[in-house]
Design brief:
Distance between the termini: 38 Å
Shape: flat
Length: about 800
């Protein structure tokens, strides 16, 4: 399968040959060695310290250090996101920088950014407070000015009453009300501020109840929202002034302001002082605005500088952390001078890994080179297939069922063809196939741009399977040409139809039928079948028989793959007592049915195949009469029936006994071999023998073989019937397409109204895209998936392996931590 000097086999049929390797690395070159192996991406490390917790491992401090740097980088990324900046994708450089220097740089940048943020928050808080204070001064001044205007008006009214010599009693009362003796007047206090508009009504009600109505509240609505100094968000607010009398009322008002989040600001009645304070506040606001703008510009420049280097720093920190994580999986030598690593690598990568080890030794100026040692083991190696962007999606379909066992036959080789072909049998329409192909060609042409973007879940699935859908589209065009359907409309693409009317009027075309006037249509279905009275019976018969033929062929392919598996692993028991009887049983029944279908097609016989197959079991010795297709059919059927019956015990009984005999011979060979040249001490030997020898449970093996035999016999019938879904889905797709064309598009086209035609065309397009190109595509995809996973792969595919996950830096640039 290849030695250390050979290159990769790029063989999808079987996984790459793997080997378990031990590396003994000097401590001084360990870091560079792991780094170079990560660049190579062909070595999977085993954890030799699995029993230790992360805090007990050798390099726990270094990982903690990397985690702290990663935290700082996440802080920078969050700050850039808030500022509307994004890291530059052009900053990822290949050159490394000293991690100590990077740690110091990140610490300094974090401290500077935190200080800038803190200063900016303080300045912004002060700016927002002064902005609110200015609004309070303006609005409260307006309230006091309007109140003074009212008092002046009332005094004018009093003077007017006095000059016109009205009632003495009325003027005395009014004068008493307005101009009371200063010694008897009540001194009113007031509190001014802002309260959120949504809370203003509740604030007024609670204020009235708490003070029993002994306050006077005046509010003024602000036209624009203001930034709250505490919350930092824009809030719609009202300016309020509360007049009160007494300290108790004042305390209650202060508590209510605090509870409702109302910001209080001082206010003076003196107009001169008001204008002076407003002037001072306006000047202070202008200074703060300038200072804040300068701070934000400095912060933006700092974040842009960080953003330019962010991806490079992030990659380095992730790489460093990953290297130390791998170093923690290595074992320390007893001399404390070497690290011992174990892991899997492909055989073809031996030279590349050794070159990496030598380069690490030279670059680190180590006096001792690393040792590459291949270990012998009975442990099953990981499975590694080298795929490209075309084959990877097909391999993912197989891996979703189960990862292939080491070097067993990989179904994805055949799935590349059979999966889109079975899909196309159910989806056959070359118009719909062209739509699928065009959609995937768009994804393929723009794959470089789309691969770097963040797509939605559904779009991401479609993009990752773009080559699968492309193959599905191509095969759908092929089967659509065979079915001669373009959105359910037939075309004479390969020449004229072979059939024509009996006369020019074509009055009896539907009743008496057509007559053959030309040679047989060269490719696919004759277009005259569409719309004829025998279209559905003919298509049903053809597609049903075609489904059985393809199903039996694929199941035979699966059984043949089991032969190649057994041959590769040297398992002759499986060849003679599993592969051979399975082939005999399946082909004695359903292989014979496939033969009858082909013979009937070739001869044009009217034989009833249902009758033939049923009475082959019920009355094998009866004459076939009109159902005889070839000479000697009766004897041949009896021979096949006996072969199928003989294949069942052949499958069931010999294999468990042969496995038991094989196990006993292997154990005897091991026990005799230990007497020759054994270096182990006598006290260890009995334990080793008992450890290597496992008891053979004959009853378990026999029951397992019984279940397997019953499953295969019943599965041969059910799996063949399962392939009839090809016929059912194809018929459903064809009929749905025909209904949308006849009952929507043609019906709308029968009207002379442009609006009716437009509506009909829109409904036809949406129905075609939504139902036929989305739902039917998904349905056919799932059915094709089921046929591969169950009917095909269960004949040979074990799928109990595990994937090869090499240590690699390849995806660090894209993956989030």
């Amino acid at each position: 399968m290849g030695d250390g000097s050979s290159g990769p086999t790029m063989d999808l049929l079987r996984s790459e040959p793997m080997q378990l390797v031990q590396l003994i690395i000097p401590i001084e070159s360990a870091f560079r060695t792991i780094s170079y192996l990560g660049d190579l991406g062909l070595f999977q490390f085993n954890d030799l310290n699995a029993e230790k917790s992360p805090f007990q491992r050798t390099y726990a401090a270094q990982i903690k250090r990397c985690a702290e740097m990663a935290r700082k980088l996440r802080f920078f990324k969050e700050q850039m996101r808030k500022a509307g900046l994004s890291p530059s994708t052009k900053s990822l450089r290949s050159g490394d920088i000293d991690l100590d220097y990077l740690e110091v740089t990140l610490g300094e940048l974090e401290s500077e950014l935190i200080e800038i943020n803190s200063n900016n928050e303080m300045l912004q808080h002060t700016y927002n407070e002064l902005s609110e204070y200015k609004l309070v001064l303006q609005k409260a001044g307006e309230l006091f000015h309007s109140a003074q205007s009212i008092v002046a008006a009332q005094q004018s009214e009093l003077e007017l009453y006095n000059t016109t010599e009205q009632s003495v009693e009325r003027s005395l009362l009014l004068e008493q009300e307005i101009t009371m003796d200063p010694s008897k007047q009540v001194n009113l206090g007031y509190i001014s501020g802002l309260v959120a508009r949504e809370k203003s009504m509740a604030f007024e009600r609670i204020l009235f109840r708490a003070t029993r109505g002994n306050v006077f509240l005046k509010q003024s609505v602000l036209e624009n929202a203001v930034v709250d100094p505490v919350l930092g968000d824009e809030v719609e607010k009202n300016v309020f002034v509360v007049f009160y009398s007494g300290e108790r009322a004042k305390n209650k008002i202060l508590k209510l302001c605090e509870g409702f989040g109302a910001n209080r600001y001082p206010f003076t009645e003196d107009l001169n002082k008001q204008f002076q304070i407003i002037s001072q506040v306006s000047g202070r606001l202008a200074e703060l605005k300038t200072t804040i703008d300068v701070g934000l510009a400095h912060r933006s420049n700092l974040l842009q500088t960080i953003g330019f280097e962010f991806e490079h720093w992030n990659f380095l920190v992730k790489k460093e952390k990953l290297i130390y994580h791998i170093l923690n999986m290595l074992n320390m030598d007893v001399t404390k001078k070497c690290l011992v690593a174990e892991g899997w690598c492909p055989v073809f990568a031996k030279d590349q890994i050794q070159n990496g080890l030598r380069r690490a030794t030279l670059d680190s100026n180590s006096q001792i080179g690393a040792i590459f040692h291949v270990l012998q083991t009975k442990e099953s190696p990981p499975t590694f297939f080298q795929t490209n962007k075309f084959t990877s999606a097909f391999q993912e379909i197989i891996d979703a069922y189960g990862v292939a066992k080491y070097q067993e036959v990989n179904p994805s080789v055949y799935t590349i063809v059979t999966f889109p072909f079975l899909f196309a049998i159910m989806f056959g329409d070359w118009g719909h196939g062209i739509c699928l192909l065009l959609a995937t060609l768009y994804l393929i042409i723009r794959e470089k741009k789309l691969s770097s973007q963040k797509l939605g879940d559904i779009m991401e699935m479609a993009f990752s399977g773009r080559y699968v859908i492309m193959m599905m589209g191509i095969f759908s065009i092929y089967t659509g040409l065979i079915y001669n359907e373009f959105f359910s409309v037939p075309f004479e693409l390969f020449g004229p139809s072979a059939y024509g009317c009996r006369d020019q009027s074509c009055r009896d075309a539907y009743t008496a039928g057509l007559v053959k006037v030309h040679d047989t249509y060269p490719f696919g279905l004759d277009p005259k079948w569409h719309g004829s009275r025998s279209e559905l019976p003919f298509l049903n018969s053809m597609k049903m028989k075609m489904s059985i033929l393809f199903g039996v062929a694929q199941m035979n392919l699966g059984i043949i793959m089991s032969y190649f598996n057994a041959k590769f692993f040297g398992d002759n028991i499986n060849i003679w007592y599993q592969f051979v009887p399975q082939m005999i049983f399946l082909n004695s029944l359903f292989g014979y049915l496939s033969l009858l279908i082909i013979v009937k097609w070739c001869t044009g016989s009217q034989a009833d195949l249902y009758h033939v197959m049923i009475y082959m079991f019920l009355s094998p010795t009866d004459d076939l009469d009109d159902n005889q297709l070839f000479t000697g059919q009766k004897f041949f059927q009896i021979l096949l029936l006996l072969s199928a019956l003989a294949a069942v015990p052949w499958m069931l009984f010999p294999r468990p006994f042969l496995l038991k005999k094989q196990h006993e011979e292997r154990f005897q060979g091991q026990s005799y071999a230990r007497l020759d040249g054994n270096d182990y001490p006598p006290e260890i030997e009995p334990h080793s023998v008992s450890h290597n020898h496992e008891e053979f449970e004959f009853s378990e093996v026999f029951v397992h073989q019984l279940i397997h035999t019953i499953e295969f016999v019943l599965g041969a019938v059910s799996n063949t019937a399962s392939y009839l879904r090809l016929w059912a889905l194809s018929l459903a797709h064809s009929e749905l397409s025909s209904v949308f064309y006849d009952k929507v598009l043609l019906l709308a086209w029968g009207y002379n109204s442009i609006i009716a035609r437009g509506i009909g065309l829109s409904v036809f397009i949406f129905a075609t895209v939504g139902v036929l190109l989305v739902m039917e595509t998904l349905s056919a995809f799932l059915h094709a998936l089921r046929l591969h996973w169950v009917e095909f792969q269960n004949k040979f595919y074990v799928g109990d392996g595990y994937k090869f996950y090499p240590f690699s830096f390849a995806s660090l640039g894209q993956d989030d931590e």
